[in-house]
Design goal:
Blueprint lengths: L2 E5 L3 H12 L3 E5 L11 E4 L2 E4 L9 H10 L8 E3 L4 E5 L5 E4 L3 H8 L6 H24 L6 H9 L7 H4 L2 H8 L3 H7 L2 H4 L13 H9 L3 E3 L5 H12 L3 E3 L4 E7 L2 E7 L4 E3 L2 E4 L3 H7 L8 H6 L5 E9 L9 E5 L3 H8 L11 E5 L13 E9 L11 H16 L7 E7 L1 H8 L31 E3 L10 H19 L5
Parallel strand pairs: 1-2, 1-13, 2-9, 6-15, 13-19
Antiparallel strand pairs: 3-4, 5-8, 6-7, 10-11, 11-12, 14-17, 14-18, 15-16, 16-17
Helix pairs in contact: 1-11, 1-17, 4-10
The structure holds flavin-adenine dinucleotide.
Length: 495
């Protein structure tokens, strides 16, 4: 039986472990954190429960594909459709825009600012839909054995889509809509990818199609961490053992193959096959010390935004704040252009607020609320010093208090902060970048770090910084792609 060691227990790792064990591989997992899930993690504190990172996701059918692939009768967690998808607030305006999936209802939200919204939105979404369906299977959900193969595949994408490669999300918005509100709100999808609409290619307007039409957004009954709890139970049943507080810091090779990974205590983890779920670029940089991934080269890559996150337990309810909320300012273009380079003060921040106790009341004591705040900030290339963390937190709390009309400081009974430093140190995220490598044209598909190693034939990668990209559904697709690679090389042991 082929023995596989997986480094990390993020979603990509857990789904790969189940896929491989269902094919007869013997799998073990090593994880530096004290519990599984990677960025899809959980904080329990002072009677409150918080999801640490992801709060909603799209493309549920990727989980269904996974379920069938590993032979589960049912997924060990339950999705909940979101409608309203989210609410958006602009500083200085009383109006709160509710983003409904029902396009007629959505059109009503914007009738005052964007005449003919429905027709314009239909046209915009039709273009995004065509691109999505023309590329989903052809380009996104597949392995490439060479850059040449990737480029040849791109030639098969209908030529009518090529302008989308050269425009930004923002330019695409400007082609379809006039009002500042509509352009800013529907370009937020670029931030979901960890970048700004001004530097994200227009191909990613497919995310507007996936959120509004195709599959929508979902969260999980009982909180997002139920995904990890459920998968962990299935891994236990399959005999996959997870070893926590175990960080890989070195390696041994023999005859052109990786023979063992070495943890911080000097223990050698030997295996026939290794799958790395730690960031695919970071691992090549830090553990394998590859020249192509030197610090100088890593710093030149485009990394996604870094998170500044707060987990607040409040001793009061927030009846007027919905589940998912974006709080934007009035200088969108300037802020987007400067924030990630640390060229603008964080005193009037843009941020996202999730009140998880709205959908999962058990996450907070009776009469209380569990609140997650995510503020995208510069990564540690641009802002290495976060000793001003309390000031940044205060700025956000002051702004949010003013905008929801509740003096939050008076009601905080539990408070946890994570700056890019803690995100980096918890999960080995390069300089605190939250979503891993960016999705610029020169960092996707055949250009992204491969899911097989350049030097060791028995080493593979899964997760956000290899193919296809970041986000929960992409991690599940990534596990499918790496499993295909491994079984192509080693065969299913039994099927
Ligand atoms: C704040 C935040 C909010 C997000 N919100 C959303 C959202 O709403 N929706 C969505 O779809 N996505 C969201 N994402 C993105 C999503 O969380 C990730 O894309 C996804 O979870 C990444 O999974 P992964 O398989 O790459 O593994 P990761 O989560 O990166 O896990 C990798 C694991 O490897 C471990 N590891 C690293 N190095 C070593 C080592 N040397 N030895 C041992 N173990 C090691 C790490 O500790 C970690 O547990 C968010 C991310 C963040 C940070």
């Amino acid at each position: 039986m082929q023995k596989v060691t997986i480094v990390g227990t993020g979603l990509g790792a857990m789904t790969t472990a189940l896929r491989l064990s269902s094919r007869g591989y013997q799998v073990q997992m090593v994880e530096k954190f004290h519990q599984p899930g990677g960025r899809l993690n959980q904080i329990k504190k002072d009677g409150f429960t918080f999801d640490m990172g992801p709060t909603f996701f799209s493309m549920t059918y990727e989980f269904e594909e996974f379920r069938k692939d590993v032979g589960l009768g049912a997924l060990p967690f339950t999705f909940r459709d979101l409608d309203v998808l989210y609410a958006v607030n602009f500083r200085g305006s009383e109006k709160r825009y509710m983003i409904y999936r029902d396009l007629d209802r959505l059109a009503k939200e914007f009738e005052a600012v964007e005449p003919d919204f429905r027709a314009k939105m239909d046209r915009f979404l039709a273009g995004a839909a065509k691109f999505f369906h023309d590329t989903e299977y052809l380009v996104l959900k597949r392995n490439y054995d060479s850059l040449f193969q990737y480029l040849i595949t791109l030639l098969r994408v209908p030529v009518k889509h090529s302008p989308k490669l050269f425009r930004s999300v923002w330019t695409e918005m400007e082609r379809h809509f006039e009002s500042r509100e509509v352009k800013e709100i529907f370009s937020l999808v670029a931030f979901f990818l960890g970048a700004t609409p001004f530097d994200t290619p227009a191909i990613y307007t497919i995310l507007s199609y996936t959120e509004l039409v195709h599959d929508g957004y979902h969260n999980v009954v009982g909180g997002m961490y139920k995904i990890v709890d459920g998968l962990r139970k299935e891994l236990d049943k399959a005999g996959v053992v997870m070893h926590f507080n175990t960080e890989i810091v070195d390696y041994r090779q023999e005859n052109g193959k990786l023979s063992a990974l070495i943890d911080q205590n000097g223990k050698a983890w030997e295996s026939d096959i290794f799958v790395v779920n730690a960031d695919a670029a970071w691992f090549r940089h830090k553990i394998f010390g590859r020249k192509k991934f030197s610090e100088q080269k890593m710093d030149k890559l485009k990394w996604t935004l870094a998170p500044f996150t707060m987990y607040l337990g409040l001793d009061t309810r927030l009846p007027d704040v919905p589940l998912h909320n974006y709080f934007l300012g009035e200088n969108f273009k300037e802020y987007s252009g400067k924030i990630f380079k640390n060229a603008i003060k964080l005193d009037q921040p843009y941020y996202y607020v999730n009140v998880v106790s709205k959908s999962d009341p058990e996450s907070a004591p009776e009469g209380c609320e569990s609140v997650f705040v995510l503020c995208p900030v510069p990564d540690m290339r641009f802002k290495p010093d976060w000793s001003d963390r309390e000031q940044v937190a205060d700025n956000i709390l002051k702004d949010l208090s003013g905008r929801i009309g509740v003096d939050l400081k008076k009601h905080i009974v539990s408070r946890t902060l994570m700056t890019p430093v803690e995100w980096r140190d918890s999960f080995n995220l390069y300089k605190g970048s939250g979503l891993g490598l960016g999705h610029d044209l020169d960092q996707i598909g055949g250009f992204r770090p491969k899911n097989y190693d350049e030097e060791f034939g028995n080493v593979f990668y899964v997760g956000a910084s290899t193919v296809p990209g970041t986000g929960l559904p992409m991690a599940v697709i990534s596990s499918k792609l790496v499993t295909e690679r491994i079984t192509r090389a080693y065969g299913p042991i039994h099927t």
